[in-house]
Design goal:
The complex is a heterodimer of chains A (248) and B (317).
Chain A (H helix, E strand, L loop, with lengths): L5 E10 L2 E11 L4 E5 L6 H8 L7 E6 L2 E2 L5 H7 L1 E4 L11 H10 L15 H13 L15 H13 L5 E5 L7 H15 L3 E5 L3 H5 L4 E6 L2 E6 L1 H6 L1 H6 L6
Parallel strand pairs in A: 3-8, 3-9, 6-7, 7-8
Antiparallel strand pairs in A: 1-2, 1-4, 4-5, 9-10
Helix pairs in contact in A: 3-4, 3-5
Chain B lengths: L1 H9 L1 H15 L3 H21 L10 H16 L5 H23 L4 H21 L1 H4 L5 E2 L5 E4 L2 E4 L3 H24 L1 H11 L1 H6 L4 H27 L1 E2 L6 H14 L6 H17 L5 H15 L3 H14 L1
Antiparallel strand pairs in B: 1-4, 2-3
Helix pairs in contact in B: 1-15, 2-3, 2-8, 3-8, 3-11, 3-12, 3-13, 4-5, 4-6, 4-11, 5-6, 5-11, 8-9, 8-11, 9-11, 12-13, 12-15, 13-14, 13-15
Classes of the chains: A alpha/beta (248), B mainly alpha (317).
């Protein structure tokens, strides 16, 4: 068996007397699409933030490719190939759509180059164009990101995450606030992306993920309630009890 | 109009330098033009931090002032040649920038402004107390630069117009450098950090280090402006370290248009020209300049140059 790409080992997160996460241990195999689900307040976002490096867990550790990355600075994550999209749209509002992606792509080749004109990095520009094509924003390349529609901004966010050529893509409620049509398009995009890399997504709308994920992890009150294939999770008595009446 | 605006922004350094070459001929006297050059560069250095990276410092007098003092002390106490004094002042100010920046960059918004203000006041008192070296309250006197030789040509630094063009050569070089930095990949990172720090970090950029590098650059540019000021005035007044001088950088930047390349220069020119004109008929020039400032902040938040650029682009679009 190949070692997991990412593994959470005994993750605990304590805020004062409140235990947001308690001994959560999960591992994620390469090139799988996994969804983390759970009712409101289950600790999904906290867990996501621990995995993506935004929060340092109170206990436990996060292993990436066999290396302990717990507490590494946020910028180190993109450099080792872990990218994320935020739950609340998080782009560079006054930069053009193309410049948003271009500056993100540029990270892999240069970070403290003060004197080369940025246009001379033609490979970076081309790569940014291609990413805009992938997420369907090629027509909007000159517009400031702030002027894009909500759904387009969500797509831009994905392009920004893809810019560091990630091995692992973490998506926090990628369809939040999207129309049904946009949601379908986003799910298609996620499926395409998952064919080539490991994807973990946190989702509130359960029905959405059941159809496309290989694995589902259910959190409840900060604890791991169930994990398995969508079919297994659906059949799980505990999950049924927690989601009672919501039609898993 | 859009083409004109695009042309100017593509060749911004050449455009600015052309304007500045003609500038002393339209000013009432050369010393004012030199002053505008120096404060224009000071505001450009400040804008690198404030306009392009979104960090509002209230302590930039520390860099203008220490640049002046280091250059002045190199000449007065060390007997160094003028060009070595310029290098010493610029590097000295950058070193102080490294120290202040290291302590300040982790603070955000108003806290960053307060920390920079407090640290700049510390610098003020250190120079104020070290009167054996700095002349204390009286300022550092005797920063004399007379005839200088540049590539075998003897130039008289005392002649106002010659002085103007020598100072302009340094200002032009600094503007070229700032322009290159802004157009570089690092310039793109600065804008990214200004726009969204969290996202920039998630994209793999070390935000604290980026902020520190730009802080030191900004301090160095302002320090260079300070060294030129010491040579220009042949004294270093203690007021150059005063927090009012830091406030002037903010005002000039906002008046001209923050985050635009030419804006801070326009702001410095308007500010100093108004001061010069208004003081001829009232001592209360600050009242007039302050009113103009308020009008711009309220009704033209893009500043003078920022509004002109915006208007030109809108007309062209």
């Amino acid at each position: 068996m190949t070692p997991a790409l990412l593994a959470a080992e005994g993750i605990g997160m304590r805020y004062g007397n409140f235990l947001a996460l308690n001994q959560v241990s999960v591992s994620f195999a390469r090139n799988t699409l996994t969804a983390i689900i759970g009712p409101n307040g289950a600790g999904k976002s906290t867990f996501f933030n621990v995995l993506s490096g935004a929060l340092r867990p109170s206990t436990g550790r996060v292993m990436f490719e066999g290396r302990d990355i717990t507490g590494d600075p946020q910028h180190a994550f993109a450099r080792m190939g872990i990218a994320k999209s935020f739950q609340i749209t998080n782009v560079f509002p006054r930069l053009s759509t193309h410049e948003n992606v271009r500056v993100a792509v540029q990270m892999l080749s240069t970070r403290f180059d003060l004197l080369t004109p940025r246009e001379s990095l033609t490979a970076v520009t081309a790569q940014a164009d291609q990413l805009l094509e992938t997420v369907g924003l090629a027509d909007a390349r000159r517009r400031p990101a702030a002027d894009l529609a909500h759904g387009q901004q969500r797509c831009l966010e994905i392009a920004l995450a893809l810019a560091c050529a990630p091995k692992l893509l973490l998506l926090d409620e990628p369809t939040a606030g999207m129309s049904p049509e946009e949601t379908v398009a986003m799910m298609d995009l996620i499926l395409t992306l998952a064919a080539e890399r490991t994807v973990i997504l946190v989702e509130h709308k359960m029905k959405l993920v059941m159809g496309i994920c290989q694995r589902v992890i259910v959190l409840h009150h900060g604890e791991l309630l169930a994990e398995g294939t969508p079919a297994e999770v659906r059949a799980n008595a505990e999950v049924k009890r927690v989601y009672l009446g919501q039609g898993v | 109009m859009r083409d004109a605006a695009d042309f100017v922004s593509r060749h911004r350094v050449a455009a600015v330098v052309l304007v500045l070459i003609a500038f002393p001929w339209v000013m009432p006297y050369e010393a004012l033009a030199v002053n505008i050059l120096i404060f224009g560069l000071f505001a450009v250095g400040f804008n690198l931090l404030f306009g392009y990276t979104g960090m509002l410092s209230f302590g930039h007098a520390a860099f203008l002032g220490s640049g002046s003092y280091f250059a002045g002390m190199a000449i007065v106490h060390g007997g160094w040649p003028w060009y070595a004094a310029i290098a010493a002042g610029t590097l000295g100010a950058a070193a102080i920038g490294l120290l202040i920046g290291f302590l300040a960059i982790r603070a955000r918004g108003i806290y960053f402004a307060m920390v920079t203000l407090a640290l700049a006041q510390c610098v003020y008192y250190i120079f104020y107390q070290a009167d054996r070296w700095t002349g204390g309250e009286n300022g550092l006197r005797g920063v004399r630069v007379g005839a200088i030789k540049v590539f075998g040509v003897e130039l008289n630094f005392v002649d106002p117009l010659t002085k103007y063009y020598i100072v302009l050569a340094f200002v032009a070089l600094a503007l070229w450098f700032v322009s290159r930095v802004l157009a570089s990949p690092f310039g793109a990172v600065l804008e990214a950090v200004r726009e969204n720090e969290q996202r920039a970090a998630a994209c793999g950029y070390d935000v604290p280090r980026t902020r520190l590098v730009v802080f030191v650059l900004s301090a160095g540019i302002c320090g260079l402006a300070g060294t030129l000021r010491a040579l220009h005035l042949s004294v270093v007044p203690i007021e150059s370290l005063h927090y009012l001088t830091s406030g002037q950088a903010v005002m000039m930047c906002l008046l001209g248009g923050m985050g635009t390349f030419f804006g801070p220069f326009v702001g410095a020119a308007v500010f100093l020209y108004l001061e010069d004109v208004v003081t001829t008929w009232t001592r209360h020039w600050m009242l007039v300049v302050g009113s103009v400032f308020i009008v711009f902040v309220l009704f033209f938040p893009r500043g003078i140059w920022g509004s002109i650029l915006h208007w030109m682009r809108r007309r062209g679009a």
